[in-house]
Specification:
309 residues; alpha/beta; eight-stranded mixed beta sheet; 8 strands; 46% helix; binds guanosine-5'-diphosphate; signal recognition particle
Length: 309
């Protein structure tokens, strides 16, 4: 079992009990522990550096309440900072999708192969067609939803989406590997308009790594579809690499949000902080199971807790 941050800091703090303020001297060892904890949680190194600098700035001069020791005071600062960076406390943070537009509202899914795009497309389609509740607990109203796959490179990908759509009971717009992704997108959009769909979710081709062709292709789809939401799907297990992938997608596309998948695995979730840091975009949902009901709104506080251990 990993030691949690409070335990780690209280070990360091034994030597500096009874100090009234957090200072450069008494936080140095503790900040080193915070740094280690974040690295163990797979937060990317440059992100850790920035974060520590911010915490330091916030912490220095902070009065240590009588009931606390300096370690507890610092954990408070770290927790608050981390929650804030990930989008604020649950109460004030809106992870909702913004779908207020002339229907169909298009959601474009972006991410590497294996990140969980197709699965998340199915989960989101289920969520929206059933009127999933938001982070604030409100129901959003049932949406007539259509899904389509523009992944013409892996025929299995189109079949996979078809299966997923059938499982969640939403309409699937057929496509096949001989078509151009843009033609598929255009036809699906036209169909969605003519049949009064509220939502069109477009699943796209991923690659195993960052690839110029992939970025050009998804950018062309973006320009054609003018999506109201462009969601970057990233695997929580990607750890340190998540930062480069997020940067590449964030540079190529005006992302509106992030979905962090596979949080049911043992990843500590450091990728959440890294991705938020490099894209500046809110995490909107987390994937918590292979099953199609395994999608939850993102809760910054819970994620902060998880990252800190
Ligand atoms: P894509 O290539 O981006 O479309 O990725 P897929 O949707 O095919 O997902 C790749 C693998 O990850 C599949 O085996 C999914 O079942 C699995 N997967 C996706 N999301 C989650 C999740 O939140 N939790 C778990 N445990 N597995 C997931």
């Amino acid at each position: 079992m990993l030691e949690n941050l409070t335990q780690r800091l209280s070990r360091v703090v034994k030597t500096i009990k009874g100090e009234a303020r957090l200072t450069e001297a008494n936080t140095q060892d503790m900040l080193r522990e915070v740094r280690m904890a974040l690295l163990e949680a797979d937060v990317a190194l440059p992100v850790v550096r920035d974060f520590i600098a911010r915490v330091k700035e916030q912490a220095l001069g902070t009065e240590v309440a009588d009931s606390l020791n300096p370690g507890q005071a610092l954990v408070g600062v770290v927790h608050k900072e981390l929650t804030g960076l990930m989008g604020g406390s649950d109460g004030e943070f809106a992870s909702e999708l913004s779908l207020a537009t002339q229907p169909p509202a298009v959601i474009l899914m972006a991410g590497l192969q294996g990140a969980g795009k197709t699965t998340t497309t199915g989960k989101l389609a289920k969520w929206l067609s059933e009127g999933g509740h938001t982070a604030k607990g409100k129901k959003s109203g049932k949406k007539k939803t259509l899904v389509v796959s523009a992944d013409v490179y892996r025929p299995a990908a189109i079949d996979q989406l078809k299966t997923v759509a059938a499982q969640v009971g939403v309409d699937f717009f057929p496509s096949d590997g001989s078509q151009k992704p843009e033609d598929i997108a255009r036809a699906a959009l036209d169909h969605a308009k003519r049949h009064y769909y509220d939502i069109l979710i477009v699943d796209t081709a991923g690659r195993l790594g960052i690839d110029e062709d992939m970025m050009r292709e998804i950018r062309a789809l973006y320009d054609l579809l003018n999506p109201i939401e462009t969601l970057f799907v990233v695997d929580a297990m990607q750890g340190q690499d998540a930062v480069n992938v997020a940067k590449a997608f964030g540079d190529a596309l005006p992302l509106t949000g992030v979905v962090l998948t596979k949080l049911d695995g043992d990843a500590r979730g450091g990728a959440a902080l890294s991705v938020r840091h490099v894209t500046g975009k809110p995490l909107k949902f987390v994937g918590v199971s292979e099953k199609l009901d395994g999608l939850e709104p993102f809760h910054p506080e819970r994620m902060a807790q998880r990252v800190l251990g």
